[in-house]
Design goal:
Among the domains are: about 80 residues, no CATH class; about 55 residues. About 40% of the residues lie in helices and about 15% in strands. It has 21 helices and 22 strands.
């Protein structure tokens, strides 16, 4: 607050007064004495100033203090409201959260669940609690292989010193669960009488008696028309045969040395099965899923899928995703009857021989060559080897799928696309009913028929084409029909509108904000769902955006300002600079995420590669990315089995780092066993066979297995 006299400048600072002699022309302060401002305490001037002047100064001081106090109070209240937002109706919010917990935790077991059990399970099976970083093997293993390429020569030792320094100075993360909740996790994990699995639809956590769960799965595996037991694990035999075949292709110059090395899996494991539970069925049923990651043919299947991808997009009925589906619906005018046909158990029903014959015809009649040096015979032989390997493990038993394409193989979706394209062409050519519209995504088909046609008649015709390919029919209800995640609505003027659709079993559960994941992962979920709302809503996306705001802030504990910022930046994106698309980074290093420590090491590696430093969330700008030679990403820790290769790499890596650690005279010793962060409830709690890995997709291009000595357990939520 400033108080101006005719010839003086008076500035109030609390109870102090600063006086300046002021020039009338320029009002620039000049010195009162010796060129310095003179400071007086207001109370000391009471005997010097006239009563009227003193009273004016006192009043000005009081007014200034009140203004400052009110401004500070308003600022603090605003910050407090942002940090701890409270809804207007707390009772309604509590009821919503209680209903949310009932939807996300389904207890079908005899074990009563207390408040802590429900609290941790309602956060989702992908919730990751924080753990103290007592062992650095995860960083050492993932970084070591890229160091020689990233910093050849003597710079490697210096880079090891820097990374070792960061690891030793790293502070433990703040716990994101309470001690009773951590004890609840231990209690659930140690209770072998129950099994915790994910619901088949909606991501709910389902708690079952272990005996009941095993009976559900046995009911599936005992079907001798689909599965049969085998006595011996064929993994090693298949690996030897596959290596010999790849070597032959390399010698024939159909595979480069680099690609040959990529397709050959050094230490493969057997595919394993896990199960989810269909709680929307009465009684509940199990659904079997097979994970083929790190198996003999997995890398080969991935490569062949990429090679054949252009052939799978040529059908007129093909839709790539929901956005493509909505764009194609815009061309439909005066729709008739809206129905959908769904294939029952497509992968296990596709006839392999017919599919390979269809593919050979497609390859022999190509308009443009594929991006590969492999011949048609070599492609078909590799595919045959990959899809005829249909064995998997469940517990201590080995099973083999008798019919169809293997579940979990990257080749199964695209081969199904080839077969279904041929199937629908033959079926529609011979049908008396000619659909106005026919769009298909794998096994789901959206159809518009003329009003005079009967959808059941077309269903009967489709089911007569092949004994194992059977369809089900769904018709519109109340002028609405869901397809994929799109709700198709017929308006009163006979036009089509689209919006986002959620199944009744949907729980609105996404990655909890308190989970130990990178902030970039959490904001990516919000932006992805926002883009989906924009792409699928043909009228106004605002109702869907309001729903997302409510779900993330009230049910998944996201800060409102973060949610609003991400949604607004997605709806109104800033202009992007026109830059050329950068080449992929030749070196990719995946770091376990442990908070700030992961960010620090990631920035250090990017600086060493000459790519600059990313922002606070480690996302480099387009200019920085165009010069980047190393791509450091984060992976969530996973439960892993013990492999000799992983042990050797861990021993080598640790010995290489040990010299750097010792040279820094580090007094703190490593723990005897590595501590892995929890990622979900233990494997058997997830519905997988005991000892099985969770099936997920970390972004890895460095083939290093996680090291876990025998006797150590990974705590899972």
């Amino acid at each position: 607050m400033e108080y101006w006299a005719t010839s003086e400048e008076v500035v109030l600072e609390g109870t102090d007064v600063l006086l300046f002699i002021t020039c009338p022309s320029s009002r620039s302060p000049t010195h009162l004495a010796h060129g310095e401002r003179s400071r007086f305490h207001l109370d000391t001037l009471s005997s010097t100033l006239e009563l009227e002047t003193y009273s004016s100064l006192r009043a000005a001081q009081t007014k200034s203090n009140n203004i400052f106090h009110n401004k500070t109070k308003t600022t603090h209240l605003k910050k407090l409201k942002q940090l701890n937002p409270k809804p207007a109706d707390c009772t309604t919010t509590r009821l919503q959260k209680a209903d949310y917990q009932r939807k996300t935790v389904v207890n079908l077991s005899d074990k009563p669940l207390n408040k802590e059990h429900i609290s941790v399970l309602s956060r989702g099976l992908k919730f990751v609690p924080t753990r103290p970083l007592r062992n650095h093997d995860d960083f050492i293993i993932n970084v070591e292989k890229g160091l020689q390429q990233l910093a050849p020569g003597g710079k490697v030792d210096f880079l090891r010193h820097q990374i070792a320094d960061i690891l030793q100075k790293s502070k433990p993360q703040q716990p994101n669960i309470t001690k009773p909740e951590r004890q609840a996790i231990t209690d659930l994990r140690k209770d072998k009488s129950i099994t915790i699995v994910q619901a088949d639809k909606g991501k709910a956590a389902v708690v079952l008696n272990t005996n009941d769960f095993n009976k559900m799965v046995s009911k599936i595996l005992d079907d001798d028309t689909t599965y049969r037991k085998i006595k011996k694990d064929p993994t090693q035999k298949l690996q030897s045969q596959h290596k010999a075949h790849l070597k032959q292709l390399r010698d024939n110059y159909e595979l480069s040395h680099e690609l040959h090395h990529k397709l050959a899996v050094s230490h493969p494991q057997a595919p394993y099965a896990r199960a989810t539970v269909k709680i929307h069925k009465n009684p509940p049923k199990a659904r079997l899923l097979v994970c083929s990651r790190d198996t003999v043919f997995y890398n080969t299947a991935q490569h062949l899928t990429k090679v054949l991808a252009p052939l799978g997009k040529t059908a007129d009925s093909y839709i790539s995703d929901s956005t493509d589906f909505c764009e194609k619906l815009k061309t439909v005018e005066n729709p008739g009857k809206i129905v959908s046909y769904d294939v029952v158990d497509l992968f296990t029903s596709v006839p392999i021989n017919e599919t390979l014959h269809i593919l050979r015809n497609r390859l022999d009649n190509l308009n443009s060559p594929l991006d590969t040096k492999l011949s048609t015979d070599s492609i078909l032989q590799l595919i045959t080897n990959s899809i005829t390997s249909t064995y998997f493990t469940w517990g201590d038993e080995l099973y083999e799928q008798i019919h169809g394409l293997p579940m979990g193989s990257p080749l199964s979706p695209i081969l199904s696309e080839f077969y279904m394209t041929s199937f629908e062409h033959q079926a529609l050519s011979s049908s008396l009913i000619k659909p106005t519209c026919w769009f298909r995504k794998v096994d789901d088909t959206f159809v518009i028929l003329p009003q005079a046609n009967d959808p059941s008649a077309l269903l009967q015709h489709l089911n007569q084409q092949h004994p194992r390919i059977q369809f089900t029919l769904e018709t519109e209800s109340n002028s609405q029909l869901p397809f994929l995640d799109v709700l198709v609505t017929r308006t009163t003027d006979n036009t089509i509108q689209t919006s986002v659709y959620r199944k009744p079993t949907h729980t609105d559960q996404y990655l909890h904000f308190d989970s130990n994941h990178s902030l970039r992962t959490k904001t990516g979920i919000i932006s992805t769902l926002t883009r989906r709302a924009l792409n699928l809503s043909s009228v106004s996306p605002q109702p869907e955006l309001n729903h997302l705001k409510h779900v993330f802030t009230q049910l998944n504990n996201y800060p409102p300002q973060l949610v609003n910022r991400v949604i607004n930046s997605t709806v109104n994106p800033p202009p992007k600079p026109t830059t050329t698309k950068p080449d992929p980074a030749p070196i990719r290093i995946s770091l376990p995420y442990t908070g700030k420590t992961s960010h620090h090491i990631s920035r250090l590696l990017k600086q060493q590669a000459g790519g600059g430093v990313g922002d606070k969330d480690d996302t480099p700008t387009p200019t920085q990315r165009s010069h980047k030679q190393c791509d450091a990403t984060y992976e969530q820790p996973e439960s892993s089995t013990q492999h000799s290769f992983g042990m050797i790499k861990a021993i080598i890596s640790q010995s290489l780092f040990q010299e750097a650690l010792n040279s820094r005279i580090i007094k703190k010793e490593y723990a005897d066993s590595p501590t892995q962060q929890p990622s979900a409830l233990t494997e058997c709690k997830k519905g997988g066979a005991p000892g099985a890995e969770p099936c997920h997709s970390p972004s890895l291009s460095i083939e290093i297995r996680r090291y876990q000595p025998s006797g150590t357990e990974s705590e899972d939520l």
